[in-house]
Amino acid sequence: MPRVSGIDIPVNKQAWVSLQYIYGIGPNNSYKILALAGIAPETRVKDLTEAEVNKLREIIDKQYHVEGELRKDINFNIKRLTEIGSYRGQRHRHGLPARGQRTRTNARTKRGQRKTVAGRGQKRGATKK
After folding, report:
1. For the chain, how long is the longest CA-to-CA vector?
2. Does domain 3-64 have CATH number 3.40.50.720?
3. For the chain, where are the E strands, in sequence order?
4. Is the pLDDT of residue 126 over 70?
5. How confident is the model at residue 129 (pLDDT cuts 50, 70, 90)?
6. Does 128 have pLDDT greater than 70?
7. Is 67:6 a contact under the CB 8 Å cutoff?
């Protein structure tokens, strides 16, 4: 299994798919990297030569922020926002969506499971006016 940026990429998949297993590389970057290396995107990773794998490693190391370095940058950015007390930083601090999504409904992924609150909702036997 070839190891690129500290990640073992799958051998039986096409090269453009395998590169996406590296954090920070999506489909577009994957195609760009393969074009720079002169490798056809449909080529299986097991069919790549050692020289081609080394070329991929060099391109990714020199031109892209990936894995730990990228995660560290993102965490520093969030930490900076919370320290300066910006609106986005406050949203991160309180565990709420930071990009303008609604929270009246549909914020379950970010906020976690529902917490039932006593005294909410309609009482039994009460009639509407």
Report:
1. 78
2. no
3. 3-4, 7-8
4. no
5. low
6. no
7. yes
